């Protein structure tokens, strides 16, 4: 069954053409699908949580199937979920997202093999470099080989860089040295020869951090190891989306012959209580501080809706301009209600960063992106 209210909204906005009778509604989904509209340009993805993967949220389920050609598990393929003890793995949910993708013809980008956050609890007890090395090798080999040919791609390494482009002092850098990134890609390539392999990070559009990411790509290539693409996460704020940096980055990564993806796109409309733009999941702002800023609990003013629609339109114009290099745009969530930005970096705020609202309806930002392809 198609969500009636959703199609009424789409009809009202004129996306289905004059008339929009109920028989047209029944065959309408393809016409108003972003994934369909952009299928000759790049994949349009979303992030899936447990309820989505288990198909417990029927309205979201309809939207996902209708709108998206790609999906990334928001949490369930992170090491803390998959790798529960030294030799213990829990593949239950990961197997389910793979099946969901196959059933619905949605390409799955697996996220993520090597990342300093959301690591298994048992890692904290590991004291020797040799044991970290054993974890690193076993994790990549076991997980990547299980899903080879079943997932489309892997974020092999996530967030390895500091803001100044130097390497983050993670458990992997400390124990394995700076060569660990090339090693991760080498192991992933061996375990998953039929899977696309990416480096993923936030703020790598910014010049200094971008330089660090370019170095990573060059080192992997110089070692004769495969890297297919770079994912720019794209967690930005309304009114300060760094268009110029984004365009320069697409060009710079493109010159190295790798694909460019925007892998976790959302635009926060709330005040940023942190210094600078960060998507470091450990960053927290005090919930009671004067900077808390939660101005839109009762709804989003039209002026902000329109500003959001304009930012998204400008971004997608840029993505389309570079569609020879840009291969996927993934939104970090399905609807505003499910966005992690309601709890990051302050818990319990009401944010509006995506294209679908809390009632699963398309927002003006949806139309501004969709209409570019009309
Ligand atoms: C976030 C998820 O959205 C949250 O549900 C979770 O609590 C923390 O992680 N960069 C990433 C993503 O690579 O994995 C993060 O996802 C957001 C920042």
CA-based gyration radius? 20 Å
Secondary structure category:
alpha/beta
Task: Estimate nothing, just give the exact number of structural domains.
Answer: 1
- What's the arrangement of strands in the largest beta sheet? 1-2-5-6-7-8-10-11
The residue ranges in which pLDDT falls below 50 over 5 or more consecutive positions are 1-31
Classify the beta-strand content into a percent band. 15-25%
CATH superfamily: Glycosidases
Query: What's the number of helices?
Result: 14
Largest sheet: 8 strands, parallel, barrel
Give a count of the beta strands, DSSP E runs of length 2 or more.
11
Q: Which whole number gives the mean pLDDT?
A: 91
CATH topology: TIM Barrel
**Bound small molecules, deduplicated:** (3S,4R)-3-hydroxy-2-oxopiperidin-4-yl beta-D-xylopyranoside
CATH C-level label: Alpha Beta
Q: What spatial form do the alpha-carbon principal axes imply?
A: globular
- Note the gap between the termini: 26 Å
Defining key terms:
374 residues; 16% strand; disordered N terminus; alpha/beta; TIM Barrel
Give a short overview.
Helix content is 38%, strand content 16%. The protein has 374 residues and is α/β, with parallel strands linked by helices. Helix 8 (129-146) packs parallel to helix 10 (180-191), helix 11 packs parallel to helix 12 and helix 13 runs parallel beside helix 14.
């Amino acid at each position: 069954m198609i969500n009636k209210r959703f199609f009424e909204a789409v009809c009202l906005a004129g996306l289905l053409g004059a008339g929009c009778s109920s028989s047209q509604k029944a065959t309408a989904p393809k016409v108003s699908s972003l994934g369909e509209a952009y299928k000759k340009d790049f994949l349009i993805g979303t992030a899936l949580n447990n309820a989505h993967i288990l198909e417990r949220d029927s309205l979201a389920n309809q939207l996902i199937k209708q709108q998206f050609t790609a999906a990334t598990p928001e949490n369930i393929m992170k090491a803390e979920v998959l790798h529960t003890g030294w030799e213990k793995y829990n593949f239950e949910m990961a197997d389910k997202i793979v099946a969901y993708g196959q059933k619905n013809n949605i390409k799955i980008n697996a996220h993520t093999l090597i990342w300093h956050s959301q690591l298994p609890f048992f890692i904290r007890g590991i004291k020797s470099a040799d044991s970290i090395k054993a974890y690193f090798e076993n994790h990549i080999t076991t997980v990547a080989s299980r899903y080879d040919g079943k997932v489309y791609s892997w974020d092999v390494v996530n967030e390895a860089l500091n803001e100044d482009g130097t390497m983050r002092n993670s458990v992997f850098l400390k124990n394995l040295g700076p060569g660990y990134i090339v090693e991760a890609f080498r192991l992933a390539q061996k375990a998953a020869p039929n899977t696309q392999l990416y480096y993923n990070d936030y703020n790598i559009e910014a010049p200094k951090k971008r330089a660090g990411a370019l170095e990573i790509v060059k080192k992997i290539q110089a070692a004769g190891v495969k890297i297919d693409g770079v994912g720019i996460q794209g967690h930005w704020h309304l009114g300060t989306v760094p268009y110029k940096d984004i365009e320069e980055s697409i060009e710079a990564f493109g010159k190295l012959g790798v694909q460019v993806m925007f892998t976790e796109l959302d635009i926060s409309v709330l005040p940023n209580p942190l210094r600078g733009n960060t998507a470091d999941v450990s960053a927290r702002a005090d919930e009671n501080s004067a900077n808390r800023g939660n101005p839109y609990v009762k709804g989003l003013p039209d002026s902000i809706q329109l500003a959001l629609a304009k930012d998204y339109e400008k971004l997608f114009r840029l993505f389309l301009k570079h569609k020879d290099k840009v291969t996927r745009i993934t939104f970090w969530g399905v609807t505003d209600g499910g966005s992690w930005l309601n709890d990051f970096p302050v818990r319990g705020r009401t944010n509006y960063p995506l294209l679908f609202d809390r009632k699963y309806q398309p927002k003006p930002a949806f139309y501004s992106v969709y209409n570019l392809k009309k």
